[in-house]
Design goal:
Number of strands: 4
Radius of gyration: 15 Å
Strand order of the largest sheet: 1-2-3-4
Order of helices and strands: HEHHEEHE
Low-confidence stretches: none
Amino acid sequence: MENRNVPEKDLYQIAIKALYHTFQTKGVDATFTVTADRIPDEILKYVRDEVLFLIDRRDFRPDIMGVVRSSPLGLGIILSEKLITVEVKNEEIGLGDWFQAKNYGDLYDAPIAMLISTEPI
């Protein structure tokens, strides 16, 4: 397929736009950032101390991370902020990819761990 000629990192911004749109249309406040190369400070503040020493290694960083903010009753008061991890694949996904996405969610205590692929399951 022609999609496989596109480097995976070129899909990150496309995935972020789609994620942002999806969450916003559901009325959920969420932000996303590419974390494949480094995890920025605005995301690091949500990472548990015992995980911080792992993030220097690429295989411990998901492609994209985000934060979902909960403001019940529309009062504008943020009561909770939770991490989202997202793994992007430019190929047909397999069980190993699913476990990779799940493991990122577990590692970062993210209640939402997503796997996005250009190929249907």
